[in-house]
Design a protein that fits this description.
The chain contains 8 helices and 7 strands; from the N terminus they run βαβαβαβαβααβααβ. The protein is globular, with a radius of gyration of 18 Å. Helices cover about 40% and strands about 15% of the residues. The longest helix has 27 residues. By secondary structure, it is α/β, with parallel strands linked by helices. The chain has a 7-stranded parallel beta sheet with strand order 3-2-1-4-5-6-7, sandwiched between helices. It has a single domain, classed as NAD(P)-binding Rossmann-like Domain (Rossmann fold), CATH 3.40.50.
Amino acid sequence: MSEPGRRKVALITGSGRQRVGNVIARSLAGWGYDVALHYHRSEQSALETVEALRSMDVSSEAFRADVSEQAEVDAMCERVVQRFGRLDVLVTTASIWEPIPLEDVSAEDMLRHFRVDVLGTFLCARRAGLIMTRQPEGGVIVTFGDWAVKRPYPDHTAYFAAKGSIPTLTRALAVELSHRNPKIRVNCIQPGPVLFPPESSEDQRQAMIESTLVKTANCPESVSLAVKFFIDNPFVTGVCLPVDGGRSIYATESTNRLRPI
């Protein structure tokens, strides 16, 4: 296993579950990064991923935190630095997605989405970014929005209101952190149907495929490649990149209402 401090380190929030964050974590490990996995409730899955990465001679550890709680986020980031010696990349895939009819959306529903999707992204990015300011090499932060904030569909008002804040937050963080260290860059990915929900039917999956211009879906590796682009290109910051196969510009009669990540 590699020694802490010798390789670059990536922290991926929401990577305990077998979803897009987990795919990104495994991709980063394959590209030579040591990996800090974040989870909230998916401990067993996170620990299994840690073991899988360690078998690849990657230094990896799982860290639990509620991303909507500042003290827990700050403690997690400090533990990551204590364990690995540095923090070079943060990817914030942790979020919630709950279909709720407009008539049933409560104030608590709205606040819950903002606490996890917006406040959680902010707390993680701020703490990681301030750690990166101490590093001459700076670092890279990749946030996660949603392609559909420009074309929202019914029963997701709370989710879209929260996710719609991520592009502005991304740009604000890019400005703030560059003033403290110009080698820190912050960008946003807005995914489309990059991973089939486990409960989706064959008809729903086909509809997701047909909703794209490229007639492809269920391709989480495309998101990993977008993360790698943001890491590798030193002249890109404050950008929001749709990774949706053209879904955001392609009008279809049916609208996919299943979570894309």
